[in-house]
Structure formats: C-alpha cells, structure tokens
Amino acid sequence: MAKYTPMIQQYLQVKAEYQDAFLFFRLGDFYEMFFDDAVRASQELEITLTSRDGGTKERIPMCGVPYHAAPNYIEQLIEKGYKVAICEQTEDPKQAKGVVRREVVQLITPGTVMEGKGLSEKENNYISSISTFEDGTYGLIYTDLSTGESRVTMLTSSTDELLNELNTIGAKEVVCDEALPGELQQKLKERLSITLSFEQDTVVKESDESFFRQLSQQKLRITAARLLNYLYRTQKRSLDHLQPVELYAVSNYMKMDYYSKRNLELTETIRSKGKKGSLLWLLDETMTSMGGRLLKQWIDRPLISKAKIETRLNAVDVFLQRFFEREELRELLTEVYDLERLAGRVAFGNVNARDLVQLKKSLQQTPGIAHLLQQLGESETNQLAEKLDPCEELTDLLEQAIVDQPPLSIKEGNIIRDGYHAELDQYRDASSNGKTWIAELQASERERTGIKSLKIGYNRVFGYYIEVTKANIHLLEEGRYERKQTLTNAERYITPELKEKEALILQAEEKSVELEYELFTSIRETVKEYIPRLQSLAKIVSEIDVLQCFATVSEKRQFVKPTFNNERRIRIEEGRHPVVEKVMNAQEYVPNDCFMDKERELLLITGPNMSGKSTYMRQVALTAILAQIGCYVPATKASLPIFDQVFTRIGAADDLISGQSTFMVEMLEAKNAISHATEDSLILFDEIGRGTSTYDGMALAQAIIEHIHENIGSKTLFSTHYHELTVLEDELQQLRNIHVSAMEHNGKLVFLHKIKEGAADKSYGIHVAELAELPPTLIQRAKELLEQLEEKGEPAPLPTQPKVLKEEEPLSQLSFFTEEPRQEQKKVAKQDEIVLAEIKKLDILEMTPLEAMNTLYRIQKKLKKA
Ligand code: ADP
Ligand code: MG
C-alpha cells in the first residue's frame, strides 16, 4: 500500500470498512469513486470512467459526480439495492497539514433512506432485522426510520413463516448476524430481493432503555438491539424520534401467505406490480400520506378479533351516516401534513422553516377535527376526539415565531416574524432606517446636483453607490464624490456618509441573519421535544383518516356493513368483485350470491373459460378480507365467519411471471394450504392441476379435494375445467357443484356471469375459440371432431373415480386419447411394484401384531387410492 499516494492510501483505509457499499469520497466539489467502485458505478450510473495517477505504475480507475447532483445518483444506486457511504472532508483544507481528514458521515442503504424518490409518500420504508436462537426460534423486528415506528415479534415455526412475514412487511433491507446460515441468506437475497446487512453488536445500551421499554424477554431485546446498533453505526446521528418498540404477534392477524396476497392483488397487481388495479388502489380515499400508509398496513394485516373489527366497523358506520361532517373532515385532513415523517426529519435535523409552517398548519387543524368528531356525538368518534392532542403551546410558538411564507434556505433570514424577538427587531429597524435614509439621500442628491437621472443602487461587490451618467459628471461638486466603478455610460461614486450608513445597514443585516438562524435552530430544538406527542397525534389522525376513507369508499361503491356469525357460515347476497366492477365502467357487473355452511363446505365451480369463475372466487375472498380489516363489503347483505387464514392458488394459465416451474409453484402452494389450513380457513383453488397432463392434473385435483373434504374442512372454492370432477358431488357429503352460466345465442357464446347451482352441462371451448376469431375452417373441423367424440358416448373417463374406479372400465372407451391411458395403466402397475417391494422389505419377526395390522392397513389404503 505504501506505493500509493497518501490520498489513495486514505481512500483505501476508509474503503476497507465499507466493502459492501459504494464509497462516495469527497474531493473538492466532487464525490469520486476509485478502483472497482468506479468501474461498477460508471456502468450502473452511466457516467464516464476515467483514471488518475495514484502513485503506482498503473493508473487507477476513477469516476465522479458533482456533489450538488449527488442525491440523484445516490437514489439510483439505492433503488438498485446498493448501499452508499458518504465520506466527507471533516477539516478545512486550508488548515490541513498533509491530506485533508475525511470520515464517513452516513451510510445510506435501501432501508434507511429518509427523503427523495426512494421514499414513496403512501408507503412505509422498512428496515428489518432477524436474530436466530438455538431453540430454533426467530426474533424479527422492523422499523421505519422515516416515521420512527418499530414492531418486534418472535416466530416459532419455519423459515417459511419468516420469509412470509418479511414479505408482508415488504422490508427492503435485513440486518442479521454474520453467522446466519448461508442458505437462508441466499433465500432472502434471491426470493425476496432484499439487501443484506450485518451487525454483531446486540448489547442494549442503557441510554436506549426507552426504546426497549415494552420488551422484557431477552430474545426480543437482542433482536431489537441488533437493529438499533446498526442504525447508530450507519446513521451516526440522533435517533430521538424512534418510538418505543411495540410487541406484536403474528397470530393476532389473519394469516395470508405471499402467494395468496399476490393472487388476490391486495396491494399490487400481478402483472404490473403497481398499485393501480389493486384493492389498495380501490380503497384509497385517504386524505393524508399517514393515512395512506396505515391503510396499506391494515390491508396487509386483517384482524381476527371480532371486538376490534367491530370497533372499526362502528366508527365507519358513524362516518357513513354523516355525509356533511365527513366531507368537512376530509377538507380538514387535506391540510394535515405528514407529521410522522416530519418528526423523523426534525430528529435528523433536516427541517426548514417551510416544514415548520406546514407543521403549524397541521396542528391548527386539530381542534377543528376534534370538534367535528365530538359533534357526531357517538362514543366511537368521541374516543378518537379525546385522543387528539393539539399541542397548543407548540402551535402558538410557531405562529408567533415564523412568517407565513419563509424561504427554503434557513441561513438567509426572512424566517422570523417581527415582534418575536426584541434584539432582532432592533437590527431590522436599524437596517430599514438606513434604507429609508438612503432613499431620502437620492432625493437630496438630485436636488443638490440638479441631475434628474442620478440614482442610488446596490451591488454585492461595491455596496451602495451613486450613479451618474457620463454626460452629467461635470455637474458634480469637486471633492465630494469618490469614484468606485466605471461603466460605459456612467460612473459610480460613494461618499463618506453613504459608506458609514452602508456599514450600519450591512452590519445590522448580517447580525439579524445570524440571529435568525440561531432563533430558528432553537425553535427546532423545541419542536424536537414534541416528537413523541406529534407521533401519537399522527397515529390518531391516520386512524381517523382510514376510517373516513372506508366510509367514503363504502358509500361511493355501495358497500354494506358485514355481520359475523359463529356457525362458520358464509351468506353473501349480491356480492361483487369491487375492483373488476370499478374497472368495467359502464358495463353491468353481475352480482352473485355465495352461500356456504356446514353442509356446503366445498364448492366445485365449473363453467366455460372467461365466464367469471376466478372473479367469483376472488370476490368471496376479498369480501372476507374487507370485512376483517373493518371495512364494509361489496354486497347487499353479508354474514361471515371470521377466517383465521386465507389461501389461494390461481391456475397456471393465469400465472405469467413465476420463474419457477409453474407446476412446482402450484404444488408448493397447494402443500402450503393443505398443511396449514384449519376448518376456520378459506381456501381458493383455481384450476389446480392445470400445469400438468390431463390425467395427472385431474387425479391431483380430485385427491386434493378429497383430502380437504375429509381431513380439513376449510371453506373451499375449487374451480376446475375438468368436468369429470363434478361427479364427486355424489360421493362427498359437503361438496356442492355450482357453475357460471353461459348461453348460446345464434351459435355463439354469451356469458351471463351468473352463478347457478349444479354443474355446467357442456364444454364451451370451441365457442370461446370462435370468439377469439380462430379461422372458420379450423372451428368447423373442431366441431366435426366434437360430434364424432360425442357420438362415441360420454367422453369423460375419470381415471380415479372415487371408489368406483375398479368396477368400471372407462379407459378402454378412449380411442382418442390412447397415449394417456397407457400411461395410467403403467402407473397402476408401478404402484403395485412399489407395494410389493415394501412388503419384501418388512422384517416380520421384529413386528408387533399391531404394527403388522397398521402396515397392512396402509398398504391397502395405498392400493385403493391407486
Ligand atoms: P374464468 O376464470 O371463468 O375464465 P374470469 O373470472 O377470469 O373468468 O372472468 C373473465 C372476465 O369476465 C373478467 O375479466 C370480467 O371482465 C368478466 N366478468 C367476470 N365476472 C363477471 C361478473 N360477475 N359480471 C360481469 N363481468 C364479469
Ligand atoms: Mg380463471
């Protein structure tokens, strides 16, 4: 290293500590990057790669960005999941002996951005941290640095649960122990595209006790300490706005795995991954960014406590009844600024006077909002009103101290109101008196010299001057004016008395600017003390906002208040899919009922493609979710059970983006549902088994249905294009066939989108093909083939018809599908082989009679199923 120049040596020393980040190394007006950083940054940011002499033979790769343009570049890197270490000059270059001292002042990471594009207004930006413990449990914490909220929990089951939770949180970055198993690290990076960071220090500092206030369990404290210590180490500044960590339990919310959320498009759509077209998009009538963020949190975590759900619903009810008050409330809310993020920026020392004016305006809305809520006169809204803390002293302070329209800069004055501070007023008087004097001087000089065009001006270099055009110079009194500057047409002069006044004015101005800055920072410190109160105010305001949002949407979209029953009964009358309905615009959405109870646990849905099967299933799930977040539901009447979990599997045909083999994903999702669902769960299986060959798929579909029916008893909606499965209704007590009706009209297919009892009677595939305008000759040929098949009798060979399989011989009828039956037969043969091998392996002498019985039972079961 000795061969490098001292500056490059300094660079390398700093860089050694920030290996996983781009090091932005301040050199004058630029941030420079060297070596590999430079090569990669030049690619990522599309900036020119140059090189410089570093003391060695080979030149060092280098690229740089001007410091004033840096935020933009930093944002780009963060968005791509990188980290950026900002290394500043920390001494005055003029004073430096040798190389200027430089230090990293902040590490910016995807989870710690505080402003800019990386931070979307209506979305939290979470950084998370996990700790693993010897007993196999996980501690998980997540924090939004911009708002100061943190929540922590212990997870006891599998890594899947951990991944799922991280996914629900939407964490951008996870801080963990370097010893975290590589496999898990890999999963975090690849499956969730999360940026990983490491922190080994898990010691709780005494000064941070308030952050840990609610945590007594050692594991939770370790988990939280890891994250907090990481934040200190990387942010290197006050984190006063961090609120005490809140403890939560995953089991207090409705569980939905990653796939289910995605399939239901709760907060983003499958295709574009954007908000538009999602349930969140439909619901978002919030007026504040805080409310927007809370809405998303609520959608991500539906409740399972009936009491809590009903508290929300009752408040929505109040807002819904009172249209005018609600409109007024919405009006007031538009004036409320993002108090949560503001509190964060106050702690970071990043606020300007305009922010404080916004804060004042927000606070000024509070009494109005409280008054309005009280007017409603209901206990739900009264409780909210009581919790609103208007922070009056702070409002008054800001009103008295800060002008209505301050500039962006906090160092150039014009921030503090007249009358707020006596000394400041004096300076201002001095300066304005001086200015009046100067204005008067112009008049008196004109009179004295008789030059009408004489004027007094000011510029930064020469200060105040008297300007006289060249033609008039001869009129000036000898000796009185000292020439300062010559222009083409005029000369500029000063006089001793002008100079004296100027000094007074400038001094007063300088002092007043300095004083203003001092006053401003002290006000900012005062605001800091209010951070916890502002944060609790923010919480209540966002809650009010989401509740009014629910009322507003419910009215707009004609939702009704759901009721809950303990009989595991779903009774939805004229239910709709709210998003599809909204998107359809003028077209008529066809409402559908859904009825399920102890006798109808499983609905098997058939119907042609595009008839509305998927839409119907989703609308049932969305209705349940809406009800459990405390919103009204799209129906004319709805009575629902409270679901503990919702699982969905949407068929391969709809699955456009999965990288994994879609069939594998399908099976993983099915496994997930089957192994976790209870009788209080809701399962949607949409065309499961579609990703594999017909018989395979059909067999799997049937086995899955039987399994759910026999062993789980979840409320299940199962759509299928395997018409053959409809015979299951005869065998399975709690299964019912329903179908989406369609009608033939003049040989064409008309979708009615209406759910009816019973199985669909005919396959409409050819008509759909016709609608898709396949060539008429092709359609004609398909029709002929269909007729041929129909003439040969029922072409519905169910390879695994329940319990009747062995008696009938449907396979032989299938001349058209010769390929697949052969496979089927092979499979049966293979099954026999497996069983024989198993019997051969048995060590009979070592078995108890009971074991022998059990083994025999298992073998028989296997053969029956085959
Ligand atoms: P399937 O799953 O049976 O193939 P989808 O549920 O995907 O059909 O629905 C296809 C299209 O039909 C939807 O995009 C929507 O435009 C329309 N649709 C579905 N259900 C309804 C309904 N109840 N009323 C009106 N249009 C509907
Ligand atoms: Mg579908």
UniProtKB/TrEMBL annotation:
Keywords: ATP-binding, DNA damage, DNA repair, DNA-binding, Nucleotide-binding. Belongs to the DNA mismatch repair MutS family. Residues 681-697 form the DNA mismatch repair proteins mutS family domain. The keyword Membrane does not apply. CDD domains: ABC_MutS1. This protein is involved in the repair of mismatches in DNA. It is possible that it carries out the mismatch recognition step. This protein has a weak ATPase activity. The keyword Transmembrane helix does not apply. InterPro entries: DNA_mismatch_repair_MutS, DNA_mismatch_repair_MutS-lik_N, DNA_mismatch_repair_MutS/MSH, DNA_mismatch_repair_MutS_C, DNA_mismatch_repair_MutS_clamp, DNA_mismatch_repair_MutS_core, DNA_mismatch_repair_MutS_N, DNA_mismatch_repair_MutS_sf. NCBIfam families: mutS1, PRK05399.1. ATP binds at residues 607-614. PANTHER family: DNA MISMATCH REPAIR PROTEIN MSH1, MITOCHONDRIAL (PTHR11361:SF34), DNA MISMATCH REPAIR PROTEIN MUTS FAMILY MEMBER (PTHR11361). This is DNA mismatch repair protein MutS. SMART domains: MUTSac, MUTSd.
